[in-house]
Amino acid sequence: MNFPGILEKRDTIGITATSSGLTRETDVIKLENAIKNLNDIGYKVIETDNVRKSEKLVSSSGEKRAEEFYSLYTNHDVKYIIAASGGEFLMEMLPYLNKYQLEGKNPKWVQGFSDTSLLLYYLTTKYNIATIHGSNLGGYGRKEIHSSYIRSIEIISSEAESVQESYEMYEAIPRHWQEGQEFELPNLDTKVEYKNLYGEKKVQFAGRLIGGCMDVLKTLIGTPYDYTQKFCNQFDEGMIWYLENCEMSVTDMYRALWQMREAGWFKNANGVLIGRTRSKETVHDFSYEDALHATFDGLEIPVIYDIDVGHVDLQWTMINGSLAEFEYEEGKGIIRQRFE
């Protein structure tokens, strides 16, 4: 694996809009807050031209987004790239990004989640470049940066093993969706409980970490940009998959997971971690757990769900490509990640 260098104070962070741009008043304020907050903790920040643009759900054409991302990636001053936002159509970048030769370039840390996870996944599976599944820029743009978002900066600022324990509470009702609360820190209102699909009280597994938002990862299957099997098959230690569902129904989620399984994505898996979601409503008599059983029964691997990953704060920082170990015991979890 290719791990970018550690982040140091006074390094430059690049912001680009790989999917949606920021034009709404509250989003622009968050952008300005994020720049100030990152400056205050010791980093320089630059942004590409498309960050403050948006039309038809995207900041610019797929070609332009690839070009602006590449401009940051090849800028020697930039050490860390954070996506301005998630969105809907990041996949439009891939045909244009595919023409750039990132192999052999000094790797940069690239971070985001939701639609951005498609870019991270592509970079890791094609080029063996470690990437960061963590907050898009908005997470840094509240009144202050929450400790869960600072965690990603801490992890890439050291070569030491990172250890993250499951949180005690999470935010079931998002405060920042409420008028007048857009810049407040998460309101932690619900107890965290990790669940084991097969009922074991304690499990442990290790492997190379890979995953992201399944809503968008599924779009790769059957395209020239799916490097999953080639990536996974190179690691004798096997894989840990983490996946999360943003807004798919239970039936849509099962279809996505079925595609992944049939495409061979889970052949080298030692375990699967499924993030929390608000899209759990049973369809007729087909439940969320039914979807997980229908996908993973017979693969004989542990499946832990409702973990601290995804669109429900708080979330862990997951380093695609890291060597990871996960432990579960009676509703709690610990993940360790190493850059090797």
Overview of the structural elements:
The protein contains nine helices and 16 strands. It is of the alpha/beta class and 340 residues long. The chain folds into two domains: 148 residues, Rossmann fold, CATH 3.40.50.10740; 174 residues, 3-Layer(bba) Sandwich (Glucose Oxidase, domain 1), CATH 3.50.30.60. The strands form three sheets. The protein has an eight-stranded mixed β-sheet with strand order 6-16-15-10-11-12-13-9. A six-stranded mixed β-sheet has the order 2-1-3-4-5-14, sandwiched between helices. Strands 7-8 form a two-stranded antiparallel sheet. The mean pLDDT is 96.
Helices and strands in order:
Blueprint: E1 12-16, H1 25-40, E2 44-47, H2 62-73, E3 78-83, H3 94-97, E4 109-112, H4 116-127, E5 131-133, H5 147-156, E6 162-165, E7 169-170, E8 190-191, E9 195-196, E10 202-213, H6 214-217, H7 228-233, E11 239-244, H8 250-262, E12 269-276, H9 288-296, E13 303-310, E14 318-320, E15 323-329, E16 332-338
Parallel strand pairs: 1-2, 1-3, 3-4, 4-5, 10-11, 11-12, 12-13
Antiparallel strand pairs: 5-14, 6-16, 7-8, 9-13, 10-15, 15-16
Helix pairs in contact: 8-9
- Class by alpha and beta content: alpha/beta
Q: How far is the first residue's CA from the last residue's CA?
A: 7 Å
Number of strands: 16
Radius of gyration: 19 Å
Low-confidence stretches: none
**Largest beta sheet: what is the strand line-up?**
6-16-15-10-11-12-13-9
The main sheet comes to: 8 strands, mixed
Beta-strand content bin: 15-25%
How many helical stretches? 9
The fold-level CATH name of the largest domain is Glucose Oxidase, domain 1
CATH top level assignment of the largest domain = Alpha Beta
Order of helices and strands: EHEHEHEHEHEEEEEHHEHEHEEEE
Which CATH architecture of the largest domain would you pick? 3-Layer(bba) Sandwich
Global mean pLDDT: 96
Shape, principal axes of CA atoms: globular
Assembly of the depicted chains: single chain
| CATH homology superfamily name of the largest domain | LD-carboxypeptidase A C-terminal domain-like
